[in-house]
């Protein structure tokens, strides 16, 4: 199953790279009508600005998920850092490279301050509220017609929209794999289909999970697992 997952993730990543480079419709580069305005936050369409902002909040949420226990064979922080500019292009390779590894196989790489920030309820709450506000603003104040026109005439808008939906699908995959490791109901992966918010809920639920926390000794983790087994 792991090998199949890696192959599927690689196929999705490669297909999106090829599509973005050669087949995405609309103008690109200096001719793109929205690229410069979105990068400078001067676009006058709320729905486009909201999507652009959400693509900044998504990597922050993945940072909360991955940086709290960055102990796999491949470090997560470079991929998280790149995801702020590359989105799914940066995060999918991390999941491809680590789908066959086990958590806890290497020493934790980041400072305790960063890890605690990633696990903090305050961090999760701020991201949750920001996401709700941005989504609500984009949906209520935005013009779907303008957005759809931009989707077909701007390569940047086209790619960032697909990027957003792929990041959402990756959320479901990340929650699914995490739930298997934590012995949680795998149906919880359905949370991932709620963009950003579902992943934040999962991160909040598992913030004190002994089976993944770097602050809990391994013998304590094993004892906790045995207690769970004996309770069935």
UniProtKB/TrEMBL annotation:
Protease is among the record's keywords: no
Membrane-crossing segments per the record: 7-28, 48-67, 79-97, 125-144, 156-176, 188-205
Source organism superkingdom: Bacteria
Protein name: DUF2834 domain-containing protein
UniProt keywords, alphabetically: Membrane, Transmembrane, Transmembrane helix
